[in-house]
Specification:
heterodimer; A: about 525 residues; mainly alpha; B: about 160 residues; alpha+beta; three-stranded antiparallel beta sheet
């Protein structure tokens, strides 16, 4: 030990420019990187959606060939799931979890840096397949064999990019778990944690539980293709349906990985703008845990039509319907929080209310799909496309947008332009419904998914859907403008920002110092 | 975080300063064991169906989780021990055994509590003597640091 100079200004020391972003171990910097990455990929995946909707604007084949169309549907899904929603929530977790639990940083900062920087490499690998012989993967994001085994040179790149994306998710999840379990401030018991922290703890647990299943599944496909194994090859004694089982054993919890953090975001925003504490905090925690548990025992509802025994069909149908109970508890609690609250309707609250209403529509169509005889009719139609887009766009994406508007003043120290925010909300809310609601009707009328052409009877609705999609896409450019404008300047934000906001992150200045909570706060 | 005061003899006193740990070593072990059971349970079930390739991935993942939790526990096991014995003030820092240590003469050692120049930043506590100073209690909250400073002054 030697003499220690006393310097109060070390709190703001950090490297600059490239070094800061490339080598950073600071949770706020890494959170920012994640959020920008998600934003960029949102426009990449959105551009793919625009190509899909352009082709589907009119019946017949106009702009792209069917192979490329299928590549677009496949990559759009992979980009939106692994490149937008998951990184955006990980970015939010990076920014917010340490500040919410009173920790100075994430528990494993170097691993945090790695888990982010793996992502651009993984997506560079995945998107490079667009330029490969045989084209990009076109067998759907579910990668069912034997169809996906027909992929050309892109196949191993698809598998390895999935591995890297999984690795990044696992490392991010381990960091979140280690931080929440070990670094909570004195006095912050598990049942005092903000709901966003709780939902992320359970999400991280889900990621850790299911990612090895996906990794194993895609590796077995790789060995089937290149090393002569027959895990999923019927000719060699394997079973392609088994792939569907293991894929959905991963895939259904993945749906909750994409939605549970949204519940945490909404549970933060609704009480703030209702100026009331969250109704039924404990029941929210137990409902989240119940949803996570049930997500492991419902996977086969994605594959009712493969020919399952009646007992299996019944089990998975009823287990799926059971999820409506904890989800209903959540919706009830949000509504009860708003009941007789002193409500104001700033942009985050508008997105949160839209989330509650529109996510419920997605939930109800999910219940319809859970009914086995009905599902036999809906399987692989646009009804399914409508269902999961209602869950993921006005569900997850709206929650992310709400979160950005809610915490952006905290992150940047500036208030965003409220009028533009409201414009963004109303354009998004109108166009998202114009895009996805008619999909229910075309689906019920028998329009199959992943097809670049369609019968004339669907033409009017399809055109309407495309107009909605273009409008929704353009509205997101306004969001980009609002974010950049807020970063560059604007009215100064106070530390609390919203008068109803509660929690440790609101005790910090806006923007928070580079290093926060180096001395832990005490939670009473 | 906590400060434990031990008094082995009338004139001697030891202060043990620990960082905050929201989950104990035992709690981490139990959590890890639970995750191992779940992860290998799932992978084992699929391996029994012939899909054995999940096992190495589950193993790799549990290895990373285990290392991550272990590193957290190591950090949480950090201790600062200030021993005031006879004519000496000894400060040892480490986990189970001291990794760094220094000592001052008791009669010359001074306890310095520096308030932060910027409002909202934490105070800092030093033991200083002959131009050398050692910071202690950085992991404590302000209130605890103030109490520790008072207790050290009384003991010296």
């Amino acid at each position: 030990m030697s003499a220690v100079p006393h310097d109060d200004h070390h709190h703001e020391q950090h490297p600059y420019w490239i070094k800061r972003w490339l080598f950073t171990t600071n949770h706020k910097d890494i959170g920012t990187l994640y959020l920008w990455f998600a934003m960029i990929m949102f426009f990449v995946g959105g551009a793919m959606a625009m190509i899909i909707r352009t082709e589907l604007f009119q019946p017949g084949l106009q702009f792209v060939d069917p192979q490329f169309f299928n590549s677009m549907t496949t990559l759009h899904a992979l980009v939106m799931i692994f490149g937008v929603i998951m990184p955006a929530f990980t970015g939010l977790a990076n920014w917010l979890v340490p500040m919410m639990v009173g920790a100075p940083d994430m528990a494993l900062p170097r691993m945090n840096n790695w888990s982010f920087w793996i992502l651009p490499f993984a997506f560079a690998m995945l998107l490079s397949t667009l330029f490969m012989e045989g084209g990009a993967p076109a067998g759907g994001w579910t990668m069912y064999p034997p169809l996906s085994l027909q992929t050309g040179a892109a196949f191993p790149f698809l598998i390895f990019s999935i591995h890297f994306l999984g690795l990044a998710s696992i490392m991010g999840a381990i960091n979140v778990i280690a931080t929440i379990l070990n670094m909570r401030a004195p006095g912050m018991s598990l049942m005092k944690m903000p709901l966003f922290v709780w939902t992320w703890l359970i999400t991280a647990y889900l990621i850790i539980a299911v990612m090895p299943v996906l990794a194993g599944a895609v590796t077995m496909m790789l060995t089937d293709k290149f090393f002569g194994t027959s895990f999923f090859n019927a000719a060699g004694g394997g079973d392609p349906v088994l792939f569907q089982h293991i894929f959905w054993f991963f895939g259904h919890p993945e749906v909750y990985i994409l939605i549970l953090p949204s519940f945490g975001v909404i549970s933060s925003i609704v009480p703030t703008f209702s100026r009331k504490p969250l109704f039924g905090y404990s029941s929210m925690v137990y409902a989240t845990a119940s949803i996570a548990f049930l997500s492991f025992i419902v996977w086969a509802h994605h594959m009712f039509t493969v020919g399952m025994p009646l007992g299996g069909l019944l089990f998975f149908m009823f287990a799926t319907m059971l999820i409506a109970v904890p989800t209903g508890v959540k919706v009830f609690n949000w509504v009860a929080t708003m009941w007789r609250g002193s409500l104001t309707f700033e942009t985050p609250m508008l997105f949160a209310i839209a989330f509650i209403v529109l996510f419920s529509i997605g939930g109800f169509s999910g219940l319809m799909l859970a009914i086995v005889p009905a599902d036999f009719q809906y399987q692989d139609t646009y009804f399914v496309v409508a269902h999961f887009h209602y869950v993921l766009v006005p569900g997850s994406v709206f929650a992310i947008l709400a979160a950005v508007y809610y915490w952006l003043p905290k992150w940047t120290g500036h208030m965003y332009n409220e009028s533009l925010g409201k414009w963004h909300f109303w354009l998004s809310a109108i166009f998202v419904n114009l895009t996805f609601f008619p999909m229910h009707f075309v689906g019920l009328a028998g329009m199959p998914r992943r097809i670049p052409d369609y019968a004339l009877q669907f033409a009017d609705y399809k055109m309407l859907i495309s107009v909605g999609a273009f409008g929704f896409g353009l509205a997101q450019l306004l969001f980009l403008y609002i974010v950049v404008q807020t970063i560059r300047g604007g009215e100064r934000a106070t530390s609390q920002v919203w008068d109803g906001a509660r929690g440790l992150e609101w005790t910090l200045p806006s923007p928070p110092p580079y290093h926060t909570f180096e001395t832990a706060p005490v939670v009473k | 975080m906590s400060v434990t005061r031990e008094q082995p003899r009338a004139n001697d006193v030891h202060f043990v300063i620990r960082p905050n740990t929201s989950l104990s070593w035992r709690g981490n072990q139990l959590f890890f064991a639970g995750m191992v059971v779940i992860s290998f349970g799932i992978a084992g079930f699929f391996a029994a169906q012939g899909l054995w390739m999940m096992l190495p991935f589950a193993g790799l993942e549990m290895l990373i989780l285990g290392i991550g939790l272990y590193r957290c526990c190591l950090r949480c096991g950090w201790r600062e021990v200030v021993s005031i014995d006879g004519q000496e003030v000894r400060i040892a820092v480490g986990r189970s055994t001291p990794e760094r240590a220094c000592s001052f003469q008791r009669c010359w050692a001074r306890v310095i509590l520096d308030k932060a120049a910027i409002n909202g930043y934490p105070s800092r506590l030093f033991i200083r003597s002959h131009g050398l100073q050692v910071e202690i209690g950085a992991c404590l909250v302000d209130e605890e640091r103030h109490s520790l400073a008072a207790a050290l002054r009384a003991a010296l």
